[in-house]
Design a protein that fits this description.
- By secondary structure, the chain is an alpha+beta fold.
- The protein is built from 2 helices and 4 strands.
- Strand 1 (6-8), helix 1 and strand 2 (32-38) form a beta-alpha-beta unit.
- It has one domain (6-77): 2-Layer Sandwich (Translation Initiation Factor IF3), CATH 3.30.110.
Length: 89
């Protein structure tokens, strides 16, 4: 089992932090994740994920303040039936 990378956005401006978070999520292979570290509850970010990536992410609080929030954001494994079949030529 690999250790999830940590993305600490506490010192980033909010717009830059969101950019880093979504770039990190976009780069995730199926079945992997990263740990977001923030200085406030990122629930607005969760709502954005729900709107833009419905059913395509996991969100698990690891620590919930009052000074530090840690959330594991993951990309679930796709079921085998969701993987398009290969074409033989």
């Amino acid at each position: 089992m690999s250790i999830d990378p940590i993305l600490d956005v506490r010192r980033e401006p909010p717009a830059r932090g969101h950019e880093l978070i979504f770039d990190s999520y976009s780069a995730l292979p199926d079945g992997s994740g990263f740990v977001l570290v923030n200085d406030h509850d990122p629930k607005a970010l969760k709502y954005q994920f729900e709107a833009e990536h419905t059913g395509q992410f996991t969100w698990d609080y690891l620590e919930q303040g009052p000074e530090v929030w840690r959330v594991r954001i993951g990309r679930p494994r796709r079921p085998i039936s969701a993987v398009p079949p290969r074409r033989c030529t």
